[in-house]
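Every protein is a chain of amino acids, and every chain bends into a shape of its own. The protein below has been through that process, and both of its lines are reproduced in full.
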Amino acid sequence: MLKNILTRAHSRPLTRTHKIAVAGVGTLGAAAVAFSAVPASGQTATSEVAAPTAKVAYSTEQIKDVHAGVTDQLAGASQKVAAIEAKKQAAAEAAAKQKAATAAKKAAAQKAAQKREAQQAASRSAQRAEVKQVSVKSYPNNLDGWIRESLAIMKKHGIPGSYQGIHRNIMRESSGNPMAINNWDINARNGIPSKGLLQVIPPTFEAYHVPGTPKNIYDPVANITAACNYAADRYGSMDNVNSAY
């Protein structure tokens, strides 16, 4: 009797809300039963087992791209450094070549200048020689010219004598004849006659001949110069001779 009463008393149909609530309670109950059914040793095992590590996905493509970019940058920097060094080396070589070329030009210019100077010096020397030759004083071919030319030579050799002293002795000895010869005095008798303007014997002429004059006893300038050289040695000067000497 009671069973029927209860049945009738709760025979009202369940609403949707009631159904959801009942389902939730059922789920919680099942979970509780499952938890209580796990033994104590099972709890220890559960706490000691490490939970699996979550896997993290990385993109290697991005790393490769970054590495490639850095490599490219380093390569570019190396190329720039190499290019700078190459430019420096090229500049240094160019500077060295320029310096060498400048030194070579300078040396060539100095050599050319020295050559020009040598040529100019030689030319000046030749010109002086020509001028000297041109400036050599010419003397007339007469007694006055012979005496004057002899005096110029005597001056160069330090032989004393004057125009007047030479002229006086010439006029006494030969009257101004360069071909005069004495065939009657003691010298002639000894085979060495006096000859020329100042009547010089051959041995005396040879002994007192002055360089730069002909070795011809009859040459007027050579005869006068040799005689004056002898007179300077024996009498101090032709000016001191007033008779046969």
